Each structure stands twice: as C-alpha cells, then as structure tokens.
From TrEMBL, chains A, B, C, D:
Stated name of the protein: Single-stranded DNA-binding protein
UniProt biased composition (Gly residues): 118-152
Short sequence motif Important for interaction with partner proteins: positions: 168-173
Region (Disordered): 116-173
Assigned keywords, A-Z: DNA damage, DNA recombination, DNA repair, DNA replication, DNA-binding
Assembly notes: Homotetramer.
Annotated TM spans: none
Cellular compartments per GO CC: nucleoid
DNA sequence: TTTT
DNA sequence: TTTT
C-alpha cells in the first residue's frame, strides 16, 4: 500500500547487554530490550504512579550491528527510530506465538547513542534499502540458523564499503 | 525514568470496523487494527516484494472513542500517534499470552483522519493526562469487564467537559 | 484544516543559557537555541564533512518554563517535540522580517532532559490545550511587552493547578 | 555532534504547484509550500479559532524530484519527513536574509502521497546519503545557478539506477 | 497559496 | 532487565 507510515521512536536504556547473532550468510542481528517509563498522578488517590515498558529491539545489518557490538551495553541510553513488526513462531510444543519488535532495517531506521559519559558518541543510520527479512518463522522465538532474507550479500549491500554512510568508518571516535 | 520517549507514528487503513467497548465505570475503549506496508526490490532476484504489517490499536477515553464511533470505519485512513504497550493475559487454558498494542491514552497521543472522501474530517488529541490503564490482566486477550485503571471518573476526567479540547464539541462538522 | 500534522523532533544541546521573559498577563516564554549536526562523507573528495544547524526554540506556559528556568542551561541536552511556526515582525527600520521557531505550546509538545550528569532529570509535557499565541507581531523580533494571546489567565489555564500534569509538582526531584 | 536528531514531520496540502529547478550539474530541486492548521477554542471568548501555518519545503535529488514533477500538484496532500535547515542569503540591496526550510535530502527523509483521489499513490525515500547542500548562499533567496553541493554525480548516486528504491521505477501506478 |  |  502506497501512502503508509510505520515509525517507532524510542529513547530509553538497555536492561542487559545486547545479544549478537550471525546468520549463515554472514548477516548479523543485534537483539536487546530498552525500557521507557512514564509517571503520572492518579486522579483518585492523588498518588504518583509510574509504569515501565520494555521494548524488544532487533537491528539488522553489519554496520549498525558493528556499532552496537562495540559501544552499546547494559545501561546505555539510546535514541531509536525503527518500525513495528510482529512475527509468528512456534514454541517447542508447536503452539503459535507472536512477538512484536521494533526493527531497525532499511531506510528510515536509525540509532543514536545518548550517553554523555565515557563510551558515548556514535550513531548510524541504515543505508538505502536492502533486502527485507521477508519471513523468519523459526522456533523458540529466535531467528534460528536461517539465512536472513535474501542471499549472502544482502547485509553488506545494505551498508557496505560503497555505502554513503560507511558505518564502521564514520563513527567519530 | 525521566528522559525516556515512547512514540509510535502510523499511517494506514483499518481492516475492519472498530470495536467499541464500555467499562463498568463508563470509560470506553476502541480497538481496531490498521495495515501498513512497504515494498522493496529484492537484491538477488530483482523482483518487487511487498509486506503488510497489521497493528493493533487501543484508544481510551470517551472523547476520542466518540470520534471513532462516529467517523472511523473499515477502510478509513488514519494518522495515529500513540505509545507502545505490551500487556500480559491468560488464555482459557491458563497460558500466559502477550499482546503488544499501540495505545492512545494521555498526553502526546493523537488521531487524525486522512480520508478526503465522504466520511472524513475529524481528529482529536488526548487531554492533559488522566489515569493510566495500570494493569488490565484479563482473559482472552480482551479488556473484559474490568474497570479501567482508576475509579469511575478516570475516563471522563481525561477529556471531559472541562477539557481544553472538548472533543465531542470541537469536531468541525 | 482537519487532517494536518505539524511536528518537529529535535535532540541537541543549548548553545547558551535560556532567556526567560514574563508577559504582562503573567505568562512566560523561554527562548533558547539548540544545535544539531550531521556528518557525511563527501562523494567526490572522500573527506568527512560536518554541518551544524541552530534551531530557535520558544516555550510558552508557566509550568514548562519553570522547569527550564531551574534545570536547563548552556550545554544541556534536550529532546524536544514542538511545532514549526513562522512569525513576522518589523525591525527598527520598518522592514519585514520573518523568524521561524520551534514552538512548545499546547498539546503534543514536550521537552525531556537527556543529561545523565548532575543537573539532569525533569521533563514535562504541555497541558491539554490552552490559548494559542494567535498573533504576536512586535518589533525587533522579540515578543515585546504584549499579552500572550488571550487574556490574563491563558498561560495559567494551560497548565495551572488543575492541570493533569502539575509540572511544578510532578518533577521527580 | 554525535547524538543529535533533526526531524520534521508534516502532513498538509500544497498551496500551489511545485517549482522544479535544475542545477548546472544535473541535480534537481523541487520547492513548494504546504499548509498545516490547528484549531482550538479560546479560553476567554469561548470562540473557535484557527491558525494556518505555511512551510517551505525543498526536495533534492532526481528520484524524489521526479516523483514530485509527475504526481504532486496544487492541493495534493503529503506526508513529509525532513530536516530543519536555515540558509542565509542576500537580497538585491545586500541585506542578509534567512530562510528556514524543511529539507528532504539524504537518509531519514521521505515523502508519501496521501491523496485518495485520482493522482494518488506514490511515495519515495531518499537513498543512503549523498552530498549535502553544503552552502548555497545566493541572492534572491533562491538556489541560483549553482552546482548543488558536490559534483555531477551526487544526485544520481543518491538514488540512481542501482538504488534500492528505484524511485522512477517503483511508483506503483 | 492549500485543505476541511 | 535499565534509568531517574
């Protein structure tokens, strides 16, 4: 459908170190979750309340994943611009499960580090497009041992050495 | 946590008419899903591919829900600005299930109708704050027959007659 | 026009301390500018280039301005969600001048502090609505000595003691 | 500065047909303005008020400009994701002037057509990066007859025939 | 200058 | 599981 927009903007901190996985074709994913929270004053009781929300993030592509591998860790504060995606998988008993993630892959998706402290700086933006994950319907809610989307050049095509933003190269520190 | 942001921006069309439910306290929810899609050209095959994503939307509060009741239907194109929320519920077998939704409730959440044709117009923005849903852990993934969050005035407090944007009133048609 | 959106999202640092002004009616504005920058690699030369952009921010309303007065200063890093507005004014020679600003006033506008260091914390969101600035066409590009928009209660109505987010009160520190 | 974000999201209609210009190097710009408006109820008088804001848009790059040339015209409704930029120029009397525009150039900038009627569809996203405008300080507030930023390949590199989103090609109508 |  |  032309004329649609799917955008998620989050600022929050990682609860744990990211997990990095490599596909058969050399592509990479980084998975982690970040917390956002909001607070408000309850109308009835007048008490302050707070609620924390955890978001699952999946980042594809060597470049951005490389940045994450090196600079993002438990506690890091990130600005994330991705898209909402739900994927279906089966648990070991064959039950259908659905996981909704914020995916950084392809145009219009970004990640910026917001820590002012030591390991800060960095950031990167996905290259011009690249193969989409298509369908990764695997067990246990993970991305299994599948090839990611297309063939062996997909990830590197996305933000390889000819990319406009040579992520591995452009990180200013 | 101060310093976090949780924002989802979607433009898409409804797959079906919205479902409206009323809570014991008089509050209302509208539930519906909207589709976004993206297309790209596959690197290997050179073929065009397209993928549609469905997003579950939950809108709380009389005012906005009133707008939806009257003007939003299957096929309507909407601009939505909400927040990501995952809630846990149990199916009839007692299994834990998780549903991630785009929630419109409280400040910074909006809905705008983008159809230029007939039933168009409208739009509205959530009032200044209001009670948060807190926890609505019910069966079957629905919002059941619970009170929503706080007490009996929560929904109407959110955007009631004293609200700055009297939604029921300000819709310019 | 129903069906329009005007939203600016910025993350950047203040170049100088904010300037706070009070209107005749007791309303307040905070003015400051924040820098964003982007870097890229030049296609021809292969050199890295960087460009910094300065954005003029105007925040209206006692609550948010109070937060700024107390916690925001030169160097602070902010997340800002506002709207684009251009106002016309005359310089001392009577020439028409135009200034485009990112305005935080009314629904859907927010400010969050992103500094992890000392003077951090805070944040706030504009209340449910409130009078709009309407027209403040004054000399020297400033907001002069005019009343802001409506009458004497406009600013306080916007996020006064009855507001859902009593900003002066809810800042968690 | 790493860690900054500069993003503008607009939905509105064009007041006039776009103006397309070609640079010496073959690059192209499309300039047009779109209106957004907001309405609110005045606190004092209780009257409805409305205010329209006009935004200057500048789109660089053959691909997107080609889409605009063919499908965007007076009255079209667009979703735009760009960045805020202010440029300085001199009028014929040598006076400094500043123009703030929403620029679509490089990663993270997009345009989607939202008209449901006849000439609808389309959309496109800027490629991976590309030369930045750098400085185009010319008279009359226009982009004059300068080369745009880099050399003759900048625009086509940005979203040329090898681009992931072959804009000229992918428009589904 | 648009649109509703 | 983070952060304040």
């Amino acid at each position: 459908m032309a004329g649609s927009v799917n955008k998620v903007i989050l600022i929050g901190n990682l609860g744990k170190d990211p997990e990095i996985r490599t596909f058969g074709n050399g592509g990479k994913v980084a998975n982690f979750s970040i917390a956002t929270s909001e607070s408000w004053r309850d109308k009835q009781s007048g008490e302050k309340r707070e609620k924390t929300e955890w978001h699952n993030i999946a980042v594809f592509g060597e470049g951005l994943v490389g940045v994450i591998e090196r600079y993002v860790k438990k506690g890091s504060k990130l600005y994330i611009e991705g898209k909402l995606q739900t994927r279906k998988w089966q648990d070991r008993d064959g039950n259908d499960k659905y996981t909704t993630e914020v995916v950084l892959q392809g145009p219009g998706t970004t990640l910026t580090m917001l820590d002012s402290a030591g390991g800060q700086g960095g950031g990167g933006r996905m290259g011009g497009g690249g193969s989409q994950g298509g369908g990764y319907n695997q067990d246990r809610g993970g991305y299994g041992n599948m090839d990611q989307g297309g063939g062996s050049r997909s990830a590197s095509t996305m933000e390889g050495p000819k990319g406009d933003f040579d992520l591995d190269d452009d990180i200013p520190f």
